[in-house]
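Q: Hi! First time doing this. I have a protein sequence and I read that you can turn it into a structure. Is that right? Here it is:
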Amino acid sequence: MPVTVRLLVWALVSALTVTPVASAETIAGTATQWGLLGTWRLDCGTPAGSNDPGQTYVVRDGKLFHERAWGDRHDFSPILSASVTNNGGLELLVKFESFKQTRQWTMIKGDDGRVRIVSNRNVDTDEYAVRDGKFTVNGNTTPWQTHCQ
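A: Yes, that's right. Below is the predicted 3D structure, encoded as structure tokens:
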């Protein structure tokens, strides 16, 4: 068999046997690898409240959940998808059953390890709460959150 044919056959077999890593990744695995798990807040040294709720990402029974705590109130929502964006951010799709809506948001990680939301929208209405890193209601830049220990 000529060398060019052997190389072509080898390339074809190699291409068919490569399994894409992303397809095998779980939602919880993506979030874990990105460094999302745990609680994130503006100020970890103060109690959680309405101005600074705890945003906790946790895996239970192999599934990823988002929990928010405002002192004595909290909600717990399943995360339906998690994917890393082209610029290294993390995009989540969260089903808020208490609000009867599904929201998609994207967060980025700073060099210091903090995170901030750069996009947040209701997927049912396409209404944005955050666009291009700014709150749509007032134009203020979204704050950075710290991973609390």
